[in-house]
Structure formats: C-alpha cells, structure tokens
Amino acid sequence: MNRQHQSLNRRHFLRAGSAGALAIASGMPGVLGRLSHAASKETDRILVVFQFSGGNDGLSTVVPHGIDDYYRARPRLAIPQQQVLKINDEIGIVKTAASFKAMFDDGNATIVQGVGYPNPNRSHFVSMDYWHTGVNAGPVPPTGWLGRALDLQDPKGQQTRSILHIGTERNLAVEGASHRPISFRSAENFGWAGPKDGEPAFEKMNRQESGGSSALDLIRKTAVDAVVASKQIRRAVSSYRSPVKWPTGPGGPTKAATDLQTVAALINSNFPARVYYVSQGGFDTHFGQKNAHPGLMTEWSQAVKAFHEDLVRLKQDHRVLMLTFSEFGRRVRENFSQGTDHGVAGPVFLYGTPVAGGVIGQHPSMTDLDKGDLKATRDFRTIYAGIARDWMKVDPKKVVTGDFEPLSFLQDESA
Description:
16 strands, nine-stranded mixed β-sheet, three-stranded antiparallel β-sheet, alpha/beta, 415 residues
C-alpha cells in the first residue's frame, strides 16, 4: 500500500459541506456487508421531523382571528382577518401558508393547540434541549427521544442508517445509545474528502481485522459504511427527477424544498432511514416580524405540500408521517421593535396521509397568561408518546420519562 495512504487520518475522509463534519454511527455492531446492502421494507414507517428554529410565532401561524384580545395586543402585527384562511369562527391559517391550509382541508394535517411544558424556559438552547431529549428537569441526558425510540426498534444497533439529519447544528433528538445520525448539510458535498486515488486504499485498510480489538473493528467497519452510504445518497439525489413543481425563490430552490426533495429522493431509492430530520431557521423575530415571518410560512408550507404530493406520486405517502414544532412560541403583546419576544406555548403540526386531520385542543386564553405568554395546555411529550406508541410501535414510557398519556392522531390506530 502506498505510504501516503497508510498515513491517512480517518477523521478527514468524510465531509459534510463547508460548515460541518459527518456525524455517523459510532457504537453499532453488525456485519458491514449486510449493512451496506440493507434495504427498507415496504411496510416500514418513516418519520420526517421539520423543526422551526428560533421560536415560531404561533399567533401568526394559527391566527385567532375571532378573538378581539388578539388584535388589542398587537395593533401593528396582528394578521388582518382578510389575510386569514378560516378554519372556524375563532382560528384560521395565515394566508401565506395557503399550501399547508390546502393539506389541512384535504384531511392531511392535524393542528395541536397550546403545546409546551411545565416551568417553561425561554432560552433557545435550554428549551430546545428539552424538546430534543424529552426531559425538562435535571441534567441534559446524552440521548434524545428519537434516538431512544430507534434503540428500542433495533436494540443491537444493527442498522447504521436509521437516522439521517440534514443540517450542521447540534441535535440531541437523533442521538441514541446504539444509533447515531448520518448528518450533512448538502447531499452533493457529502462524501469522500481525501485524495482522489485514496478511497480504495482507505476502504481496504479499514476492512482489515484489528487482531483482537472489537472496538477498532467496529470503527473501521462503520467508517467504510459511511463512505458507501455517502455514495448511495449522492447517487439517489443527483438522479432524482420529479414532475411535481417544487417551490423556488429569487435565488433558486428554497432550502426547505431542497432538503425535503433530498428526503423524497432517498425514500424513492429505498434508503433504509426510519427518521429524517430537517430544520428551518429565522424564527427569532424580535424585530421586523411583519417582513420576515410571511416568507418563512410560504417557504415551509409550499415545500411540505410539494413533498406530500411527491410521496403520493411515488405511492409512499402511507409510510410517512411529518412533525413540525418549535422550541417555544412568542409573547402575546408585540414589542417596540415591530417584533415579538420569547414566549411559551404554540401549535404543533402533524401531517401526511396517515393523520386523522383536524384541530386538537382549544386555542389558549388570550387573557389568562403566564407572565405575558400563552399558557401551555398540552405537554409536548404526549405527542412524542403518541408517535412512539402508534407510529414507531415502541413503549412510550421508554421514550419519554414520566406518565404522559399518548396523543391519538392517526386515522387508524390499529394499523
């Protein structure tokens, strides 16, 4: 073997674009050959999480157009009634999210009102840790709710491609004891980053047995599988073609559309991930909210509707459930910078063909507030417990700690 190849540093062989490195399984036993060629079964269910990062203003998303106190609290920022697509006499969806409203009208979206947790924390980082781990007291655990759910589905960690995370920000939700995410920012930039002629030597070097160190053998096998997975991902995305009209912005395809089209391509290619995780930033609207928030709603709603339509076209829609949440809502009253500050409760969205549709829960009171914020009427862990029990088919009490009644939201709970 060439001396240059012998001295290659394993930490530098995979890239995840210019701003991140690969985060991939590092504690999962199994035979590499079987892992590299593993294919998902048609009946396997997929969860796609779409995270609103920064604290989405739920009052500008699910608008309480029929509540006068809303308009009194926000003389400049309240969404005018003519810009609301009404669900009933009290609430509606902001018109800039018309694509999502169309999914709701078709019965393919469920809105869960007033979601939060006890003793709320208004720090982005602390609150997101709570949502990611499903724990809102004591030390932050090393695993997240999705990682634990997949650990229950696959206790030995034999499937190293169960979680795919698009993004470079830290995300505890997808960290398990036996499962770690494949993580990248851009599929086209994800893959081998060493010398062009070094990849075969790298694979050969890492396929060799260590002579007694099972831990080293695992690292070697995982490293090779990461390279193989990156090839599969790039090939699936680059060759994907769809007649569905995916949304674009002034600079080309939106980030939300690009990320979800990547997910659609991988589902179409039979990539074995059970969880896909994407996010959209920009929701920390302390100022200029009236200019920023409408565009965020349009980008999200158009992208998820195109994604759903593509899944229907591929006849994969019955396998895919989507979840959208944010770490907290915004305060009821607008601030002096034409924005809103960190709040507490907000809506959560479950959507796709499997959901029953409709609205769960009443809109929180606009006058009985928690230090100026909407009070949470539902703990977010009831939603996680429902997903664990009814969608992922694992024990919800091992996914979220505590006695939380699982929320029922699927069309057929016995499916």
